[in-house]
Amino acid sequence: MISRKLLFSVIFTIFLASLIRTFVTRPVLKVMSHPYARELEVATLAVKRASVLTKKLSDSIAETSKSGTQIKNDKSPVTVGDYAAQAIINHAIKLNFPTDNIVGEEDSESLKEETEEAQQLTGRIMQIIADVQAQTSSSSDVLGTLDLVNAVYDSIDFGNYEGGSKGRFWALDPIDGTKGFLRGDQFAVCLALVEDGKVVLGVIGCPNLAENIQSNENQSGVVGGLYSAIKGLGAYYTPLFENEEFVPLERQEKIHMSSTTDPAELKVVEGVEKGHSSHSTQSLIKTQLGFSEETVAGQTINLDSQVKYCVLAKGLADIYLRLPINDKYREKIWDHAAGNILLYESGGQVGDVLGTALDFGKGRLLDSQGVIAANKNVFSKVIAAVESVLLEEKK
Known about the structure:
The chain is of the alpha+beta class and 395 residues long. Helices cover 40% and strands 21% of the residues.
């Protein structure tokens, strides 16, 4: 027969094991098994590697603008950083999710031309890819490496998918805010996962964004932020360059939009480039919302790229206005996909000038005009002001 002492020991051991499973194992399993856990890890490490690469280029902006710039048909500058970052991220996605499609901004056609300029650009791309892979070698088990020119070309061209309302694809902007990048100012590396036309995951690397943004002049804290969001799990922030490793969500800061409605306290983020949105119309909208003429300048923060979404999601601003410059202009999905889910998961709302939610299942472009984002408490008031101003302008 089993002695009482031995029986007590067995029962105590079982009880102790149960406690360990309850208070240690279960929370870890819950976090690690959340939807899109693998996708988040791959996307995060890829964006971080691309952010290291683009930050180094941005810091040497003078050299980049002289020797590493091409001009697209629409005359916006494209740097070697665009190609290198897209190659790195696309390669990581295809390595880990071979059947996933990618909607990317760049293609390798101009790099394959038999010209001295194309050869120089290709050589520079290969060099900076090799450098960043060596610098972030701890991530190579997940992200893989690119060593051959043709493999780089192929990786860039993985981004040729046309999008659509069915299936699963990634939307990538390797350097969002290229002009900010060339100025050594704000830009972002933006990656989103879209399923059946809905954004379910977004990761944004902001290499030059300060942790705290109070105004155009007042910015402080850690420079470089990583912003992530997963459908149903919320939005998160962590320093971008603190380490090379993937930081699990439970060790990141969960972020939320503000709930401010008072015009004296509201802050608006707008683009820097006037050619991207109608600043004059946006000024009228702020007046319609009740902004004071004496304080409105200090309540307006001008930032390039999707870093605007990040500032809103962190509760540092309340409204994002991007009015169309003409009736025919349509936004590209990679310019808003990651920011879209970041805003929703942080408690905000996003729509076009009519307040209708953006649809990422219509191809490579949004079939709508403009982008308006705000905290939920003030969103309807912003849309009403937008409609009123636009109607008045048409008279």
